[in-house]
UniProtKB/TrEMBL annotation:
Keywords: Lyase, Metal-binding. The keyword Metal-binding applies. GO terms for molecular function: aldehyde-lyase activity; metal ion binding. Residues 22-195 form the Class II aldolase/adducin N-terminal domain. It comes from the Bacteria. InterPro entries: Aldolase_class_II_sugar_metab (IPR050197), Aldolase_II/adducin_N (IPR001303), Aldolase_II/adducin_N_sf (IPR036409). It comes from Streptomyces antibioticus. This is Class II aldolase/adducin family protein. SMART domains: Aldolase_II (SM01007). GO terms for biological process: pentose catabolic process. GO terms for cellular component: cytosol.
Length: 227
């Protein structure tokens, strides 16, 4: 896809926006390096105050520079940069409008996308399901970039920090970019795990109960170094 630019006076990025952009570009490059997307698929956004920094449409992530800071306000009006924001912006804005998310990661990860074509919900084969708030739902299909897809995603995200998008990919959010990214990686890993376990002939994977998932979620929230 050709790179699109148009000239219009925008404000200059604040120092914290410049820093957030650097982290966003690094995360976007990681989605390619980690095999979660191919080419310019997928997109990443970070909220700084009432500005949402977002990957531009159709520009390879290794070509993004510190000067390419692209940002919109919470209604989608562009306030930073001249590159056209990702076409999947409505989905990102919908998440920021309805949750306390500070970062959103959207990918076309292969195992997760495969699972999105098979079930309505990822069967809870692993306790990391608790880290996403419970069994991960699949949002019904709608064309990319549409308000309809954004609505479907919001419904699938209720009480969750991640969902699958049928015949499309993944979306996770977090209070930091690292957290949102890690949730995508965990989701893709769990999808791969379920595909492996459920493809063993004459066997059915055992699933965790609701209370086991809840307990794991509580333990995960308290996990880490004390203090
Ligand atoms: Zn997509």
């Amino acid at each position: 896809m050709a790179e699109q630019r148009y000239e219009q006076r925008r404000r200059d990025p604040l120092p914290e926006e410049t820093d957030a952009w650097e982290a966003l570009v690094a995360a976007a490059r990681r989605t390619v390096a980690d095999g979660l997307v191919v080419g310019t698929s997928g997109n990443v956004s970070v909220r700084v105050g009432d500005t949402v920094l977002v990957t531009p449409s159709g520009v390879p992530y290794d070509r993004l520079t510190p000067d390419d800071v692209t940002g919109v306000d919470l209604t989608g009006r562009q306030v930073l940069g001249t590159l056209v924001p990702t076409s999947e912006l409505p989905m990102h804005l919908a998440v920021y409008a309805t949750t306390d998310a500070r970062a959103v990661v959207h990918t076309h990860a292969v195992h997760a996308t495969a699972v999105s074509t098979l079930v309505l919900e990822l069967p809870p084969v692993h306790y990391m399901t608790g880290a996403l708030g419970g069994p991960v739902r699949v949002a019904p299909y709608a064309p990319y970039g549409t308000p309809e897809l954004a609505e479907n995603v919001l419904r699938a995200l209720e009480g969750r920090t991640g969902c699958l998008l049928r015949n499309h990919g993944t979306l996770t959010h977090g209070t930091t970019l690292d957290q949102a990214y890690d949730r995508t990686a965990q989701l893709e890993w769990m999808c791969s795990l379920w595909l492996k376990a459920s493809s063993v002939p004459h066997h059915t994977p055992s699933l965790l109960t609701e209370s086991q998932i809840t307990e794991a979620g509580t333990r995960l929230r308290n996990y880490g170094q004390p203090g």
